[in-house]
Design goal:
Elements: E1 3-7, E2 12-14, E3 17-19, E4 22-28, E5 34-40, H1 43-59, E6 62-70, E7 77-87, E8 90-99, E9 103-109, H2 110-124, E10 125-132, E11 135-141, E12 147-153, H3 179-183, H4 198-215, E13 225-229, H5 235-247, E14 253-258, H6 261-273, E15 279-283, E16 296-303, H7 305-317, E17 321-327, H8 330-339, H9 346-349, H10 352-373, E18 376-382, E19 393-399, H11 406-423, H12 429-433
Parallel strand pairs: 13-14, 13-16, 14-15, 16-17
Antiparallel strand pairs: 1-4, 2-3, 4-5, 6-7, 6-10, 7-8, 8-9, 10-11, 11-12, 17-19, 18-19
Helix pairs in contact: 4-5, 8-10, 10-11
């Protein structure tokens, strides 16, 4: 086994340039013969290399810095690569620590990062390569124990060099040429997004980004009918139809269900103008709508037990995918307040704001467990940033090809019973709809 032990006196810096005395490297070779090397650092080459790094960063010529021939104590670390990036318009150095099984990326201010890179080089690496637009500087500790600096010209020079890390995301739903976005007041006739509609446009795309990988777990033959419960003005419903029909090129029927008649009429008019032939809106409530044959059921911000009604409808229809963003959580909160159970969390629930948050988590956690009971893989994730709304949780149930076995179902029911006893909950509205014996 190779053992590399470094004995190195304290390093001193003068005007941010390394000035090293000597360090002693003790190397244990496989056959057990020890070689003691005393190496004097060639200070001039070190200064030239560090000055080259600093100058290339200042002049905007820096491409990459790599540290190789690692000889430190971490058996997994192989190399470190450093590049210049702009993060939120702030110049930074991004370090990629290349391990055998993973990469770790850390970002530092430029001055701090350069100082750290030179310190790492002095301790744990035997070679460093600075790549700039027009040349390469290679600093190496050779076998004779000398610091050697070599310069190479670059044959291929990049035409442009950009450090931007804040690259704008490609939009799933482009704004140009979308009649429905204009009619909904998000864009003008040329496809320019209005300033006061930027958040709504971003929300549409974020919504599609979340649903896209979930939808792609299924084939077009499995997702033929989509129902959006409580579709409102239809921003997200139109966006989803546009994505399914014009991006994925799927032949899918999408239905929006909304209680307000004026919004239903408006959305149907816009669907006709946009030539969205398989998108229709209906007036009614979640409880009243017939969802038979539904493959994907969505309910966003359905208030209190209306979310349970939507989940129940999705389970009843055997939907492949159920996605709900709950709003309010009054039913479970009232149950907790009514019972006034004393438990280990009473020190929190005595305060109204904590009780509200606790009720939200309990309600949605039980919903996820019930979805699992009926053979769904449940996920809970952030829907939209809490900057826009505190009600930002999305619960997703994906129908598994295998039904939940009886042992797992019994365990889920037992867990739900324990939750109800602990918090003094008499019933959860979804359990009543599904007639679960909890």
């Amino acid at each position: 086994m190779n053992l590399l032990l470094k004995l190195q006196p304290k390093l001193k810096r003068n005007s941010q340039i390394a000035s090293y005395n000597l360090f002693i490297t003790l190397v244990s070779i496989d056959w057990g013969f020890l070689i003691l090397m005393i190496i004097m650092i060639d200070r001039d080459n070190w200064i030239k290399f560090e000055a080259g790094c600093s100058l290339s960063l200042t002049e905007g010529h820096f491409v990459k810095l790599s540290l190789g021939n690692y000889c430190g104590d971490d058996p997994e670390l192989k190399n470190i690569y450093v590049k210049r990036v702009d993060i939120r318009k702030i110049p930074m150095l991004s370090f990629t620590y290349r391990y055998k099984r993973r990469d770790i990326i850390k970002n530092y201010p430029v001055d701090e990062g350069l100082s750290m890179a030179m310190d790492l080089l002095s301790k744990d690496f035997r070679i460093a390569t600075l790549i700039t637009i027009d040349k390469e500087l290679i600093l190496e500790l050779n076998r004779e124990g000398k610091i050697v600096l070599r310069t190479k010209g670059r044959q291929r020079r990049p035409e442009t060099l950009t450090y931007s890390h804040d690259r704008p995301k490609a939009k799933t739903i482009e704004a140009i040429g979308k009649r429905y976005l204009t009619d909904l007041g998000i864009t003008d006739e040329r496809g320019n997004v209005f300033r006061n509609a930027q958040d709504k446009y971003k929300q549409i795309n974020h919504y599609i980004e979340i649903l896209s990988p979930l939808i792609k777990d299924f084939s077009q033959e499995q997702i033929r009918k989509v129902v959006d419960m409580g579709s409102g003005k239809g921003y997200l419903t139109f966006g989803l139809y546009d994505y399914l029909s014009n991006v994925l090129r799927w032949n899918v029927e999408v239905l929006g269900v909304e209680l307000r008649e004026d919004l239903v009429s408006l959305c149907n008019e816009i669907a006709v103008k946009s030539e969205f032939n398989d998108l229709r809106f209906f007036q009614g409530t979640i409880e009243q709508h017939d969802v038979r044959g539904t493959d994907l059921l969505i309910a966003l911000h359905a208030c209190d037990t209306a979310t349970d009604d939507a989940i129940f409808k999705g389970i009843e229809a055997g939907a492949k995918l159920i996605a709900v963003a709950p709003c309010c959580h009054k039913q479970i909160r009232k149950e907790i307040e009514k019972s006034k159970i004393e438990n280990d969390l009473s020190f929190l629930t005595r305060y109204g704001i904590f009780l509200e948050r606790q009720a939200e988590m309990i309600t949605d956690g039980m919903r996820a467990l019930i979805l699992e009971y009926f053979g769904y893989k449940a996920k809970v994730m952030e829907f939209i940033s809490d900057v826009h709304t505190p009600k930002n949780v999305l619960i997703v149930g994906s129908k598994s090809s295998k039904m939940t076995n009886e042992h797992r179902q019994r365990a889920i029911l037992s867990q739900l019973r324990d939750i109800k006893v602990f918090f003094g909950i008499q019933y959860h509205h979804l359990e009543r709809l599904l007639k679960l014996e909890i």
